[in-house]
Design goal:
Number of domains: 2
CATH architecture of the largest domain: Orthogonal Bundle
Shape: globular
Distance between the termini: 36 Å
Structural class: alpha+beta
Number of helices: 6
Oligomer: single chain
Largest sheet: 3 strands, antiparallel
Order of helices and strands: HHEHHEEEEHEH
Strand order of the largest sheet: 1-3-2
Number of strands: 6
CATH topology of the largest domain: Arc Repressor Mutant, subunit A
Radius of gyration: 17 Å
Helix content: 40-55%
């Protein structure tokens, strides 16, 4: 997703594209890994956009409800956010340097496992989250 597509998505949802909202979107578009609300706030300040924490959380909630943003927990009891347009994927999380890397898995095998849960345990899977925690190559060598 690029800025133009995101702008169209905002407009289709009936949201005005204000300066802070445009900056918020650009922070998400520029992100190379999921961001916490605190990090989003810091990046907005770096763009000379001053908003309070409540505004950031309200915008996160709004974008989640619209399906534009998804939340992820990376093992530290904090929520992180990334654009839903990145598609379904999982993460490798370094416990030493906090680097987060996207990783694609064989979705066919995962869907087969979900179907098995439904059939054998009568459990309807609505969604799943799968992250791997360990040490990246750089931290293993340090």
């Amino acid at each position: 997703m690029d800025e133009r597509e995101l702008t169209l998505t905002f407009k289709k949802a009936g949201l005005r594209l204000t300066g802070p909202r445009k900056a918020f979107a650009s922070v998400l578009l520029e992100a190379t890994q999921p961001l916490s609300a605190k990090t989003i706030l810091e990046k907005l300040k770096g763009k000379q956009i001053i908003v309070n924490k409540t505004t950031v959380y309200r915008e996160i909630e709004r974008l989640e409800k619209l399906g534009m943003l998804r939340s992820i927990e990376l093992g530290d009891r904090q929520k992180y956010y990334e654009l839903s347009s990145l598609g379904h994927h999982h993460h490798l999380v370094c416990l030493e340097c906090d680097q987060v890397e996207d990783v694609d898995l064989n979705e066919t095998l995962l869907l087969r496992q979900e179907k098995k849960f439904t059939e054998e345990r009568n459990f309807k899977v609505l969604h799943h989250s799968l992250e791997f925690f360990g040490l990246c190559q750089k931290c293993q060598c340090a």
